[in-house]
Design a protein that fits this description.
- This protein is α/β, with parallel strands linked by helices and about 170 residues long.
- The radius of gyration is 18 Å and the shape is elongated.
- The protein is built from four helices and seven strands; from the N terminus they run ββββαβββααα.
- It has one domain: 2-Layer Sandwich (Zincin-like), CATH 3.30.2010.
- Bound molecules: zinc ion.
- Zinc ion binds next to loops.
Length: about 170
C-alpha cells in the first residue's frame, strides 16, 4: 500500500495516508475521509508498504465483523429466518455461503463494495436458509426483499475483482 493510493470502503474511494511515528505498533485512524495509517518510523520500502497493507486488511476484517453481523441481524428479522454462526472470512473466490446447519460465511471484502451490493450478498445467503438452491423459488424470494438485486449481482460480476486489492 503506497502513500497517496486510495482504497474502496463501502463503495467509495478513500485516500490512504502513511504517517511515520515513533510508536512500535501500527494504528489506523479513519477520519476526515482518509485512512491515516501510523507506522513505526524505522520501517521503509517494501516492509513499510506490506505493513500498511496488512493493517488496512485487519481494519477491514474487524469492521466487517461488526457491520455484516449487524446487517444480517436486521435482514434476518425482515426475512424471518434464524441462523447459527456468522463467520467473516478471507476467501479467495466466494462472497458468501450458507451451510445446511444454518451457518453463514461472508468474505470480508464485501464491506468494500457499495452498501447495496453488500446487502444483496447478505440477503442472498439469508434466503438460502429458506431455499438451499438457486431455483426460481429462491430468486423469487430474493426479489421479494430486494427487487433490484440483479443490478448488484451484475456489479459483482463486473467489479468484484477490484475488491481483491486487500
Ligand atoms: Zn447462492
Amino acid at each position: 500500500m503506497k502513500e497517496g493510493k486510495s482504497i474502496l470502503y463501502r463503495g467509495q474511494e478513500y485516500e490512504v495516508r502513511l504517517i511515520a511515528y515513533a510508536g512500535k505498533s501500527a494504528q489506523i485512524i479513519f477520519r476526515e475521509d482518509k485512512f491515516n495509517i501510523y507506522l513505526n518510523n524505522k520501517l521503509s520500502g517494501g516492509k513499510l508498504q506490506s505493513e500498511a497493507l496488512q493493517q488496512l486488511k485487519q481494519w477491514m476484517v474487524e469492521k466487517a465483523e461488526e457491520e455484516i453481523k449487524q446487517r444480517a441481524k436486521e435482514f434476518g428479522m425482515i426475512i424471518g429466518v434464524h441462523y447459527n454462526h456468522i463467520r467473516i472470512k478471507d476467501t479467495k473466490t466466494r462472497w458468501g455461503s450458507c451451510s445446511s446447519k444454518g451457518n453463514l460465511n461472508f468474505n470480508f471484502r464485501i464491506l468494500m463494495a457499495p452498501k447495496e451490493v453488500m446487502d444483496y450478498i447478505i440477503v442472498h445467503e439469508l434466503c438460502h436458509l429458506k431455499q438451499m438452491n438457486h431455483s426460481k423459488a429462491f430468486w423469487n424470494e430474493v426479489a421479494q426483499y430486494m427487487p433490484d438485486y440483479s443490478i448488484h449481482k451484475e456489479w459483482l460480476k463486473a467489479n468484484g475483482r477490484t475488491l481483491y486489492v486487500l
